[in-house]
From TrEMBL:
Domain HAMP: start-end pairs: 189-240
Keyword Nuclease: no
Protein's name according to its UniProt entry: histidine kinase
Organism annotation: Rhizobium oryziradicis
Primary enzyme class: transferase
Gene Ontology CC annotations of this record: plasma membrane
Catalytically driven reaction(s): ATP + protein L-histidine = ADP + protein N-phospho-L-histidine
Keywords: Kinase, Membrane, Phosphoprotein, Transferase, Transmembrane, Transmembrane helix, Two-component regulatory system
Length: 464
């Protein structure tokens, strides 16, 4: 047997799409962080290098002495990063510190800085800094050589810029991811709609309609529809075969039973010994019992088939019960037996299939006639609140309460002689359940007999 996974196909698609979107979002956020970091470094490095170049250009030699007048524009440029601190050092041709922080190390080789400004990361006074080294050649009669400007700036401003750019990127990626998931959900719903349409087409079909499905579906679902149609064709063949078998069996069984009963009735009992007469009576009883069971089996199959195909309609319970009563009570009933039918003046209407409901009431009456009644039988139609009842009361010993749940089963004995009720109660119970009702019993009392009743909800036209 194939296991059933109750997980939604839509949920599966959304989980997988969400996982892919999450991976994509993580990749985009990582790329955004790298881009923000690179952009912040590039922007602030340009400012740092520009300031260093302005400072190195301010170096002059006057009267053989090297002097530096630090330009205010350089510090104004660096002041754009208001939270950052600035450290600088001016190194003369002889390697002496002309001004600034003497402990600000110049770890760049001379050849590297001579070609172009050199940028590097470092730490100064416990703070992370970005350091640029700029060299300038000095050619003077008194002094000549290379002078260096070492300029350091803390990285708080650029870190803030990285955080700001990354946060904006995260918000943008989150919005885009949400839109992507929403679009995926709409697309998944729309894409899965053919499956819902296929299910609706199957559920709305008449139970007796075994023609192949003719629905427009996407190419991916076509194999599934083809398999369903193949199954429908096979099922139609099996149903037709079964119906033909039941019809043939009913005919083949009823015909010899009728012939057997006719042959038994033609036997002349005058010349038979008492023992032979007893055997003949047993043959008659068994033939009658076999005929009744056969009819019940066929009627049970008919009831099940009708509830799969027949449409329930409002009908008069009074009329159906009266017809069942007339069909159930035989003409050859004991003349001393008292049999009656009562129905209210109010016409009680229920939703039912007429043949199945009549069969259920007929079985209740037939069971009372054969297994319960001794000399008295009453069939009544009554109303109790919003329920309609068909009551069958007899003066027999009744069914013990402990056996009430069992007698609804097939071929269960409900009498002391060991005879079974066949399918009578089973048919009635199936019909009652299908119509939203039930079969019940009431014990025999000093003033009333044993009662079997069929309870059904009344039809309310205004509520429909």
């Amino acid at each position: 047997m194939t296991a059933i996974n109750n997980a939604s196909l839509f949920a599966r698609l959304m989980v997988r799409a969400g996982f892919i979107v999450l991976l994509g979002a993580a990749s985009l956020v990582s790329a955004a962080w790298l881009y923000a970091h690179t952009a912040a470094d590039d922007a602030y490095d340009r400012i740092l290098v520009g300031a260093a170049l302005q400072m190195v250009e301010s170096l002059v030699i006057t009267d053989g002495d090297m002097k530096i007048a630090l330009p205010s524009s350089a510090f104004e440029l660096l002041g754009l990063a208001g939270r950052d601190r600035i450290f600088y050092r001016v190194i003369g041709p002889n390697g002496a510190t002309l001004t600034g922080y003497g402990d600000l190390q110049n770890d760049v080789s001379a050849q590297e800085s001579h070609a172009a400004p050199i940028l590097r990361d470092g730490t100064f006074h416990g703070a992370d800094v970005r350091i640029v080294t700029v060299a300038r050649a000095i050619a003077d009669a008194g002094k000549s050589g290379w002078t260096y400007i070492v300029l350091a700036q803390t990285t708080e401003a650029r870190q803030d810029l990285v955080s700001e750019l990354t946060t904006r990127a995260i918000l943008l990626v989150a919005v885009m991811s949400g839109l992507a998931l929403a679009a995926t959900a709409l697309a998944a719903r729309y894409s899965l709609k053919p499956l819902a349409d296929l299910g609706a087409a199957l559920s709305s079909r008449d139970p007796q309609d075994l023609t192949p499905l003719t629905v427009d579906v996407p190419r991916e679902i076509s194999p599934f529809v083809s398999s369903i149609n193949h199954f429908i064709v096979r099922l139609d063949q099996r149903v037709k075969l079964l119906q033909r078998y039941v019809a043939d069996s009913a005919h083949q069984i009823r015909t010899p039973l009728t012939a057997l009963s006719a042959q038994v009735s033609l036997i002349n009992e005058d010349n038979l010994q008492p023992e032979d007469r007893r055997h003949l009576e047993r043959v008659r009883d068994r033939a009658a019992e076999l005929g009744r069971f056969t009819n019940q089996l066929l009627n049970h199959a008919m009831v099940i088939h009708r509830f799969d195909s027949a449409q329930l309609t409002p009908m008069s319970l009074n009329d159906v019960a009266r017809k069942a009563f007339r069909a159930s009570v035989p003409i050859t009933i004991d003349p001393d037996a008292v049999v009656s039918f009562e129905a209210p003046d109010e016409d009680l209407t229920v939703m039912a299939d007429m043949l199945s409901l009549r069969e259920a009431i007929t079985n209740l009456i037939d069971n009372a006639l054969k297994h319960g009644m001794q000399s008295h039988l009453d069939v009544r139609v009554a109303r109790v609140g919003d329920l309609a009842l068909v009551e069958v009361e007899d003066d027999g010993p009744g069914i013990p309460p402990e056996l009430w749940p069992q007698v609804m089963q097939r071929f269960v004995s409900n009498s002391s002689d060991g005879k079974t009720s066949g399918l009578g109660f089973a048919i009635a119970s199936d019909v009652a359940s299908a119509l939203g009702g039930r079969i019940g019993f009431r014990e025999k009392t000093e003033t009333t007999g044993f009662t079997t009743y069929l309870e059904l909800p009344l039809y309310n036209a205004s509520a429909q």
